[in-house]
Write the structure tokens for this entry.
Amino acid sequence: MKKIGLCLGGGGAKGFAHIPILEVMDDLGVKPACISGTSIGAIVGALYASGRSAREIADLSLFPKPKGLKEALKSKDLGKLWDMIDPDLGWNAKGLLKGEKVLGFLEESLKVKSFEELDIPFRCVATDFWNYEAVAIDSGNLLEAIRASMAIPYVFAPISKGGQVLVDGGLTNNVPVDLLDDDCDIKIAINLRGERSTPKDKIPNALDAVFHSYDIMMEATTQAKLESYPVDIYLHAPVVDVDVMDFHRAEEVYQQGLPMKHVFREQLEAALWDSCT
């Protein structure tokens, strides 16, 4: 079997579109030899590297969309989502959310605590806030590394570790293809950039300006990275009008990502065949 490297990009709630990609790999009976990821890509990547199947990851993360307010208030699945929200209300708050409840959910879901316990070698990325540098992490405390990789500034409190203040890896390396092993026969990268249906001549409001500026920066660094580290299969998730924090739309985002399955399956099968000839 040829050595496959899988890179899962960051993008907040858009990360549910990674699941169809994993479903194809499971359907074909193909496992990556190494995985890299940033932010939500780090979460999904770590779950997959721990031995979870695509179906199990979907069961853990896909919350059915309630049909109305009454159903929403009764929804147990929506309750699980609220249970992961822990606002930081102190005078010296470092972010809107502490992120500790997310860690609790991940600890229960992963059932491992270190990189060394994973079934598949895995690397994730955080950003050294004060030194403007990407920080690759592939050993030690897995939960702490994921928590650092997903620490979107102002949304989640940063992590202080080893004299560094670590925040979201998307600031410096949102699609970390450079962290895949050099000797991979097939390198795969999934970018969660998504699209907007907003008219191109519309002046953005304040919230759009903040989040879309973040997207522009991440896309620019991603394209520069891909020029230096080309991959064999590269896909944009066909997600439209989804914001970083739209986690309540998990099922909808997953459905938007489904068109990738056919395209990815064809490309992966072709790459596997070419590698054998």
User: Anything to note?
Assistant: Confidence is low (pLDDT under 50) at residues 63-87, 93-97. The chain has ten helices and eight strands.
